[in-house]
Design a protein that fits this description.
By secondary structure, the protein is an alpha+beta fold. It is built from 12 helices and 6 strands. The protein has 2 domains: 74 residues, no CATH class; 187 residues, no CATH class. α3 runs antiparallel to α4.
Length: 281
């Protein structure tokens, strides 16, 4: 469709006849995400508030549909964790670029690399990373606003240095892995942690508690307090897919706390796009 035809469609967005309006909107949506830049341009030059609002709704619908498609493709690919977190963040920040996240993360890695000692004992390597992450760069728990949606957006956490257990763990883990450390996520009930797992040693890291190092027996005690039976999944690394799902579930809770049912339902749809059929029941 050329610009002239698109212009003609947009000019009909002030239509009062609901049947005609629905037809026009469906036609625009059928064109897919490639028309978003044009609609944004039209929004900037539009003086009719009704048409502006309808353009905003169309842009959001197209961005949302595009995101669902991207998440589905991500699940079918190598499920790179940073890319998955980027996709989640584009729900709120559709213009966010993956390359910006890579650059921001690279800066955190560089600060850690400057002080890193590859020959150190695993415990000492983690203590060095803790020193950079928490003392030098000032990353920490957002306890004052724990349920803020921004705590689940990796770009926001990289900027504010405040996050929830999962988002802080993800950034810490991505930096650790760039340092060639065998650090992976563990999907505990009510708490996301990290495991340092090599042939020689295995221990756990609570990033939300400033990188506290603890053992398997501590997880046993934690599960005991929750009256939960031990499972392998509570001690072993989880897949990136499970980590991104956990972030989405946290985001759903955030929007529930804010009283935003529309966003709650939208994030549930996004979660469904990377969940198996049995998980949606």
């Amino acid at each position: 469709m050329d610009d002239k035809e698109l212009r003609a469609l947009v000019s009909l967005l002030d239509e009062e006849d609901q049947e005609v309006l629905t037809h026009v909107e469906n036609k625009i949506i059928s064109l897919g995400g490639t028309v978003i830049p044009y609609l944004e341009q039209q929004w900037e030059t539009q003086f009719n508030p009704v048409v502006q609002r309808r353009l905003e709704d169309l842009i959001h619908t197209l961005q949302f549909d595009t995101l669902r498609e991207r998440l589905s493709k991500w699940k079918e690919g190598d499920m790179d964790l940073l890319e998955g977190m980027w996709l989640v963040a584009t729900y709120q920040y559709p213009d966010l670029e993956l390359e910006k996240l890579r650059n921001d993360l690279e800066q955190v890695y560089y600060e850690a690399w400057l002080e890193f000692k590859p020959e150190a004992h695993p415990f000492d390597k983690i203590r060095l990373l803790n020193s950079v992450f928490f003392s030098k760069l000032k990353f920490g728990a957002n306890t004052k606003n724990f349920h803020s949606p921004g705590n689940n957006m990796i770009n926001v956490v990289l900027e504010t240095k405040k996050g929830n257990p999962t988002s802080l763990c993800i950034i810490y883990m991505l930096v650790a892995q760039k340092l060639k450390l065998p650090v992976m996520g563990v999907n505990l009930p009510n708490l996301y942690i990290l495991v340092y797992k090599s042939e020689e040693t295995q221990f756990y890291i609570n990033v939300f508690n400033r990188g506290l190092i603890f053992s398997k027996s501590d997880i046993d005690n934690y599960l005991g307090h929750l009256n939960l039976a031990p499972k392998d999944a509570y001690y072993e690394p989880c897949e990136n897919l499970e980590t991104v799902k956990r972030v989405m579930r946290s985001l759903i809770i955030s929007f529930e706390k804010l009283g935003d049912p529309q966003k709650v339902e939208e994030v549930k749809l996004l979660l469904n796009s990377i969940s198996d059929q049995w998980e949606r029941m």
